[in-house]
Automatic annotation (TrEMBL):
Signal peptide range: none
Protein's name according to its UniProt entry: ATP-grasp domain-containing protein
Domain of life: Bacteria
InterPro entries: ATP_grasp_subdomain_1, NAD(P)-bd_dom_sf
Alphabetical list of SUPFAM superfamilies matching this protein: Glutathione synthetase ATP-binding domain-like, NAD(P)-binding Rossmann-fold domains
GO terms of molecular function: ATP binding
Source organism per UniProt: Sphingomonas adhaesiva
Amino acid sequence: MTGIVPGTVIVTGARAPVALDIARSFRALGWAVHLADSVPAMAARWSRPAFAVHRLPPPRTAFAAFRTALARLVEATGAALIVPTCEEVFYIAAAAPAVRVFAPPPDLLRRLHSKALFADVARAAGVTMPDTHAIDDPAALAALPLDRIVLKPEFSRFAAAALIRPSPRTVARLRPSPTHRWVAQAFVAGEELCLWTAAHAGRVTAHALYRPAWRHGRSAAYAFDAVDWPPAIDMARRIAGATGATGHLSFDLIRTPDGAAVPIECNPRAVSGVHLFDGTALALAILGETVPPPAPGTRRHLAPAMALLGAPAALAGGRWRALRDQWHAGRDAITRPGDRWPAAGALVDAARFAALGLTRRRSPTRQTTADIEWNGGPIA
């Protein structure tokens, strides 16, 4: 390990459990850590020993105020680095703060986040992609082979709006346009895996490949099993190398029956694979050191979600023993010995998102990103 002089880091997206993991890792490395978000982020606020947690304006609706507040926070803390974790990354990159940011530049972020443009990025890196094309006219939907495709908005998250081999009636309700494009992608059969990587100037410094063991519908998982499969890591290295990216590069991919690693989309933000690391590994990787991946079979879960979502699903589906085994074989990613209050904070955060979503006719999942998500429009 090369000599790293501890400094001050700002970790944004404090609402996300992955932000708390990254904050703890930097603290373990001796850095002064500040967390920031545009929501209260009680899980982060209730962690002990306490982190400084700062409230920023919502970047999606008040970008100018967000940019000013972020610059002031950097100046006040003397931060040497900003580590975004969620979709605020797009707004931080656009704000261009006078400090190093662990993220690609705006143009590359757009190409990675776009479900249409990412296919071109992957192919240019020599990675096999399913046939993928954008649709901006409802008339184009009629010619699609619906039994062999997946439809999703060009800019979307959590697979919340993905339509897998949809019915004609479902497709008839879609209204793609030049400003709200949909993407048609050939359906790829196989096992779904997820991959988080940290990249530095095109070099992968950490990776965690995992199986989403328990999830809410097709949305984000709340229990994760680490797996080892070199073709997936090779795919990520090709894309990182071809783009020269620095930042989080996360992928949803399919392990096909013939052993190919086929990415279906990229998320240039932190994802649940972060939970599979311990100690200083995350901070070191973000700072450019190469660290080993989590051991295959490593299990983590989000205890509040396992209780609130997993238990009812297990009871309804006759999988109680599987849930119990997952719980006992793994470790909660939110709490640590002597630091149990973040689990309660996570419940408060979830209740707040659910209540706000109810008043605004959004699902709780959609509400979690309502103030930070970016859907391809201009940032100003």
